[in-house]
Amino acid sequence: MLWGVLLLVVGAIAALTIFPQLHLRGKWLAVAQAAYRESTRQPLFWLLLAFTTFFMLVSVYLPYFTFGEELKMVKGLGLSAILLATLILAVFSAGVSISEEIEGRTAVTVLSKPMSRRSFLIGKFVGIFLSAVLLAMLLSVVMAIAVYYRNEIEPEEQRPQLAEIQHLERYLSFLPNAILAAGRYLLYLSYELSVLMPAIVCNLLQVMILTGLAVALATRLPVVVNLVICLTVFIVGRLSHIVVYQSAPERGGNPLVHVMAQIFATILPGFNYFDMTDATTAAIDVPWGDYVFHVAVHSVVYTAIALLFGLILFEDRDVA
Q1: In angstroms, what is the C-alpha Rg of the chain?
Q2: pLDDT at 49
Q3: Which of 12, 59, 154, 290 has the most neighbouring CB atoms within 10 Å?
């Protein structure tokens, strides 16, 4: 399991790094490649990566005054920082890339290849979302390092005696101690990543929905309006189910507020169900098949609806 997570992360980073250099035949794949390249090369990507990395590393040494639960704060802040950074990158990249190409008449050249508007829209979505995945993967490795060193400073979690470590030291005892220590360090990091991975995947599923919405709105709206709408959907989607519970008549709530909250909770995605921060910090095992899979289906449905809505808006848009 631990080696599988480590290989998954390394493979994902390698594949996404090589992706811009590949020669792709499909039209929508070519658009995705260009959008991915544009998103990862813009200063915002590197600024978010540098700032979030600095924040995570500084959080290792901050006093939280939580009476022996500092490690939970480091994990919670790290997961929130990854979600915020990927959301900013995806929504901003979608708004700037699509809106500027339509307003600047660059889209006319692309759509006259010939290329369908559906391929153009799907390619943009895939490329921008892959850039957010790359950012999340890089920050996940940084977060695993931060969690590891925070636990080294003030041990709060007893690391299990991993069978991989014992196996490594038994059969590779002829190697220098530095190499064995490096292997042990990588195994510990892969263990931390295996614990954090369900929460990170659920964060990326939120980003996927909002990326689809941002791509759809970018066909008609400018960047600032797009950002405001996506932020509003994210906040209301996080709070609507809580408001439904708090405003229930049996709890003495306002009936009108309860009805409106039910409408928003039905229409908008339930982003609060995507939040695995509390479960991760409390060391609760999040089942991949029984929970993460259902959340993924929920996000795929909403993303498909958003892209279909964007295609309807884009079909009637004059780009000439």
Answers
A1: 22
A2: 92
A3: 59
Contacts of 298 (CB under 8 A, 6+ apart): 205, 269, 270, 273
Please state, in angstroms and rounded to a whole number, the distance separating the CA atoms of residues 75 and 28. Answer: 37
Which residue stretches of 21-116 are H helix?
A: 27-41, 43-59, 70-103, 106-111
Residue 137 and residue 202: Cα distance in Å, rounded?
13
Q: How many helices (H) and strands (E) does the chain have?
A: 12, 0
Question: What is the C-alpha to C-alpha distance for residues 257 and 239, in angstroms, rounded to an integer?
Answer: 13
User: CB within 8 A of 169, min separation 6: which ones?
Assistant: 180, 184
- CA 197 from centre of chain: 11
Q: Produce one character per residue of 63-72: b if its CB has 16 or more CB atoms within 10 Å, e if not.
A: eeeeeeebbb
- Say if CB 239 and CB 231 are below 8 A apart: no
SS (H, E, C) 112-157: CCCCCHHHHHHHHHHHHHHHHHHHHHHHHHHHHHHHHHHHHHCCCC
The residue assigned the tokens 């022996």 is 68
**Best CA proximity match to 211, nearest among 110, 307, 114:** 307
Q: Which residues of the chain have pLDDT under 50?
A: 1-4
Q: How many residues does the chain have?
A: 320
- Structure-block tokens of residue 253: 């709530």
101 exposure class (CB count in 10 Å sphere: 0-12, 13-18, 19+): buried
Q: Are 217 and 25 in contact (CB under 8 A)?
A: no
Question: CB-based burial of residue 160 (10 Å sphere; 0-12 exposed, 13-18 middle, 19+ buried)?
Answer: exposed
List Cβ neighbours of 256 (8 Å cut-off, separation of 6 or more): none
- The pTM of the whole model exceeds 0.70: yes
Measure the CA angle with vertex 212, ends 272 and 4; round to 5°: 70
CA atoms of 59 and 70, how far apart (whole Å): 10
> How remote is the C-alpha of 317 from its chain's centroid?
30
